[in-house]
User: What shape does this take?
Amino acid sequence: MTEPVRLHGAGTRARADRAAFLRDGYVVARGVLDPAALEAINAEMGELFALQLRRLGLPVDRGPSREAWQANAARLLAVDVETYINTARMTQMLPSAHRLMAGDAILALVRDLGIGFPVVSTRLSNHIMSEALRIPGGYHKSPPHQDWRSMQGSLDSVVLWAPTTPVSEASHPLQVVPRSHLMGLLDTVEHIMTPTVSDPRITEDSYLSLPMQPGDVVAFSSFLVHRTGEAGDGLVRIAFSTRYNNAEEPTYVEHGYPTPYKYSYRTDLMVPDFPKAADIARIFPDATGD
Ligand SMILES: O=C(O)CCC(=O)C(=O)O
Assistant: This one.
């Protein structure tokens, strides 16, 4: 611990413990983010689900509780899986979430850990975890994995994971394998979501759950083995994650900044015959369709 760093509001925090990070592969930084900002993001995410429920003529539970948030999301999932998935994805597009996960507090933490020139590796992810929100046949809990395999960036790249709801041992905590980053890149087997680590040194009792409060952030090496905790308390657990490479790490510079990510789009019309001239005129009154 060295000198304090000014954070949100009038608060200060101790610098993140780089020695512990290098040794264990992760560090939990307490009170890094403003809980009020996280609460506001929960409300914005909830409003996305509410907009779709209203469109479908379905009721909307009010209030900031996890119960209401989950009930609304589950109601949408029950009637329209595709719209649920689109809406869950849309929660990753909120400017407020981007601002938070690329804000001064997060970047200060990343720099504390030795990332001299942080650059975003991957688009923001939101992990909405609840048995009640399980997508039929689709993605649910993350299996044991190392993020480096999908990032393939700088060797010192870090992942930041920040819950917007309280996380206990019983609410699908993030589980890490301390010191597993020291094993380097491990072998994998196929999995529906992401290649899963397969290594006899990683056993069930290797995992450590990380209970956290909104405002806490865990930063971990992209080589650290981690997964979603199995146990749930029946209520939704939400966490954003983001990943940073170090643009000045010598091997990353030497390799010429390669990226494994592909960003593409379709050009056929997803809603047939839309938009027509009348649709355009709803936004631009001067539009004539000529
Ligand atoms: O939120 C979770 O449970 C899993 C997150 C994760 O695996 C990741 O961010 O790589």
